[in-house]
Amino acid sequence: MPRIAELAVWAASAKQMPKLRSIAPIKLLLDSTIHAHAITHEDAWIDTGEVLWGGVHPIQTGYAARIPVHSADNETREYRDICRLTVLATLARRGVFQLYTSAELMAERIRHPPARFQTTGYSDFSLLDGLRIESLDGWNFDSFTTGGANVSDLRAAQRKRLRASGDTLYETILRVLWSDVHSQDAWHIRTAQMHGMYALLTMDYSLVRLASAQRKRLDQIGITTRIMTPTELGEEFGLGPVPPYLFSYTRASFPVRSDLCMPGERRRRSTAKNKSV
Prior knowledge:
The protein has twelve helices and eight strands. The radius of gyration is 21 Å and the shape is globular. The strands form two sheets. A five-stranded parallel β-sheet has the order 6-4-1-7-8, with helices on both faces. A three-stranded antiparallel β-sheet has the order 3-2-5. A hairpin with a 3-residue loop joins strand 2 and strand 3. By secondary structure, the protein is α/β, with parallel strands linked by helices. It has helices at 2-13, 17-23, 32-37, 77-93, 103-110, 142-145, 154-163, 168-177, 183-194, 205-213, 215-220, 230-236, and strands spanning 26-30, 39-53, 57-68, 97-101, 125-126, 134-135, 199-201, 226-228. Helix 1 (2-13) crosses helix 4, helix 4 (77-93) crosses helix 12 and helix 8 (168-177) packs across helix 9. It has one domain. The relative contact order is 0.23. It is 39% helix and 17% strand.
């Protein structure tokens, strides 16, 4: 199965590889939503029913296994983007794409439970596992630098800090977006622009719609960084989709059930225990 996944990625990208190699590395800043959706498999308890232990005592039996989050026939926009992300992540391992994070993106993620943005289960699988994703500008964790538990709203603290930064480019982008909801995203666009990123890769669809609507004004203020979804980036470079269930056996040394999916085709809550399937 790992070889089948590799073959599928080859088929999805082979035609465009000469062009991609000629312009590589293509630098991408990953939004936090990408980290969350890159987790395509989680571990779950497979219930195999009740048996009599010693022929007398009834006990529940089962086993833990890695299963895909989504079914193969999922038709959501998120799933279509994940099918492109499989190819982008694989090509990043081959040096075609170079992936980055930033101080403020890490500050966003650190205030959430770890399982939201990274694998924590024994058999969980993320498309980004093992990839070197460096920060463009160091780190800044509000949970540490502003008193952590003593601050009631770390998100508000981060926004307040950014608004007080006095950064001219950030303030200009914020005026263009004209949305306090996306004040942190304005900073991410500013960071991507300052560090020469080809795109800010995101699955925040409200941000993508807003940036698309304001693309002309962003061009006017000199923003060359694109704000794109994995599907948009894949289509721009002629890369096809590859379903994540093909990666079920990649780096697996434990039971796998690629024929199943998580209940409701949703990842378990960050604080939830393994679900039974």
